[in-house]
Specification:
It contains 13 helices and 10 strands. The protein has a 5-stranded parallel beta sheet. A 5-stranded mixed beta barrel has the order 6-7-8-10-9. Helix 2 crosses helix 3. The longest helix is centred in the first third of the chain and has 39 residues. The N terminus is likely disordered.
Length: 392
C-alpha cells in the first residue's frame, strides 16, 4: 500500500509530456498577456500627460500628472497586471480555438498549394518593396504617407502573389492535378458511402490499384455512423462492417487515408450528402469513387471525374458471343422444365437447355443467345457438341 501511494506521488511530481507542454503554453500566454496590459496602461497615462502638456499645460490635471508620475506608473502596472491575469484564460482559449480553426483550414489544401502560395507571397512582397521605395526616396519628409503606401503595397501584392502562384505548376503537378497531368500525379480519391459499404474498395487499396490520397468526407462518415446505429439488423451490420473497413484502411501500409471536415457550400441550397461530395471533389480536383449510378451521372455533368466500381466490374466480365463454348457448374433447376442454372465467375446467370440432368456437375455449354436486363446479362446456352470450351 505504501509503495502504491509513493508511486502515485511520483506520478504527480512528473506529469506527462503533453501536460507539461500545455502548462508551458498557459504560462507563456499569461506572461505575454500581463506584459501587454502593463505596457498598455503605462503608455496611456504618458500619452494623456503629453496631450495635456501640449493643449492645456496650466490645467490642474496636467500639474497633477507631472508631479505624481511615479504613482501613475505604479497604478498602471498594478492595474495592467490584474486585468492581464483576469483575461488570460479567455485569451488562451481564443488563441487555441484560432489555432484549431487554422489547422483545420490548412488541412483542406495540399502541401503544394501552400508552398506555392508562400513563394508567391514572398515575390509579391519583393515587388511591393520595389514599388514603395520611390516614395521614401523622393518624399523623405512624408514618413506617414510613405509608411501607408508601403503597407498598402505589401498587402495588395502579397495577396495577389499568393493567389497567382497557388495556381501555377511549380512542383511538377498542378494542385489537385489528375492523372492526366504531364507529371502523372495521382489525384485524391473521394469515397462515397456506397463504395465503403460495398467493401471491394479495401481489396483495391490493398493491391495498390487506388493511388494517391484517399479522402473520406465527414458527411460520409456521419452517414455510415447512422447506418451502424440503425434499428434494422441488416443495415446495422453493414454499417459496422463499413466502419471496420475504414479502420483497416487507416492501418493498411501504403494507404494514405484521411477523414476530412467538409462543410456545406454557402452558395448551394442543396444540403444532401451527394451534393456536398460533388462540390468537394470538384473544389480539390479529386476523383469521386462510388457505386451510385445516379451520382455518377450528376458528377459527370458537373465536370467531376468518377470511378464507378460497378461499371468497372462490368467491363471486366467475360466477353461471350453466340457460338462460344464455356465450362460451367450446374447448381440448380431452372423455372422451365428441363432447364439447369449455372453462374459464371462474375455472377452472370447461365440458363442451360436440358441442363437439369447435370445438377452438381461441370459441363461445357455453347452460348445460344444473350439478353441484357436491368440486373445485368442473362445467357442462354445448350450442351456443346465438342465438349471443349473456347472461353476459359
Amino acid at each position: 500500500m505504501r509503495e502504491t501511494l509513493m508511486a502515485g506521488m511520483e506520478f504527480r511530481k512528473h506529469p506527462a509530456p503533453g501536460q507539461q507542454q500545455v502548462s508551458a503554453l498557459s504560462a507563456a500566454v499569461k506572461i505575454l498577456t500581463v506584459t501587454a496590459f502593463v505596457m498598455f496602461f503605462n503608455f496611456v497615462p504618458r500619452l494623456v500627460q503629453r496631450v495635456y502638456n501640449l493643449t492645456r499645460p496650466q490645467s490642474s490635471a496636467a500639474e497633477y500628472m507631472n508631479t505624481n508620475v511615479e504613482y501613475v506608473t505604479i497604478a498602471g502596472v498594478v492595474l495592467g497586471a490584474l486585468i492581464g491575469m483576469a483575461l488570460s484564460p479567455q485569451i488562451e482559449n481564443a488563441m487555441l480555438q484560432t489555432h484549431r480553426q487554422l489547422a483545420r483550414a490548412l488541412r483542406r489544401y495540399p502541401p503544394q498549394v501552400m508552398a506555392s502560395s508562400s513563394i508567391g507571397v514572398v515575390v509579391g512582397l519583393i515587388f511591393a518593396t520595389l514599388i514603395s521605395m520611390p516614395a521614401h526616396m523622393f518624399f523623405p519628409e512624408q514618413r506617414t504617407a510613405g509608411l501607408l503606401i508601403a503597407v498598402s503595397c505589401a498587402l495588395i501584392f502579397g495577396y495577389l502573389g499568393g493567389l497567382m502562384f497557388s495556381r501555377l505548376n511549380l512542383w511538377g503537378a498542378a494542385p489537385g492535378a489528375s492523372p492526366d497531368s504531364p507529371a502523372g500525379a495521382a489525384a485524391p480519391k473521394v469515397l462515397d458511402s456506397s463504395v465503403i459499404i460495398d467493401g471491394r474498395i479495401g481489396r483495391l487499396c490493398q493491391e495498390r490499384f487506388i493511388e494517391g490520397r484517399i479522402l473520406i468526407p465527414s458527411p460520409v462518415l456521419n452517414e455510415i455512423q447512422r447506418i451502424a446505429d440503425d434499428t434494422d439488423k441488416v443495415r446495422r451490420e453493414r454499417g459496422r462492417n463499413a466502419l471496420a473497413l475504414i479502420s483497416q484502411l487507416r492501418d493498411m501500409e501504403g494507404v494514405n487515408l484521411e477523414v476530412v471536415d467538409v462543410r456545406r457550400d454557402r452558395d448551394s441550397f442543396d444540403e444532401s450528402v451527394d451534393a456536398q461530395l460533388v462540390a468537394y471533389a470538384k473544389r480539390i480536383g479529386g476523383v469521386l469513387v462510388t457505386n451510385d449510378f445516379n451520382l455518377t451521372k450528376v458528377a459527370g455533368l458537373r465536370g467531376v471525374r468518377v470511378y464507378n466500381l460497378n461499371l468497372l466490374a462490368n467491363e471486366f466480365r467475360k466477353t461471350l458471343l453466340p457460338g462460344d463454348t464455356v465450362e460451367v457448374h450446374v447448381v440448380k433447376y431452372g423455372k422451365e422444365g428441363g432447364q439447369g442454372i449455372a453462374y459464371l465467375d462474375d455472377g452472370t446467370m447461365v440458363v442451360i437447355e436440358s441442363g437439369d440432368k447435370f445438377i452438381g456437375e461441370a459441363i461445357v455449354v455453347e452460348v445460344s443467345s444473350i439478353m441484357q436486363t436491368v440486373a445485368g446479362r442473362l445467357i442462354f446456352a445448350r450442351l456443346a457438341p465438342n465438349r471443349e470450351p473456347t472461353v476459359q
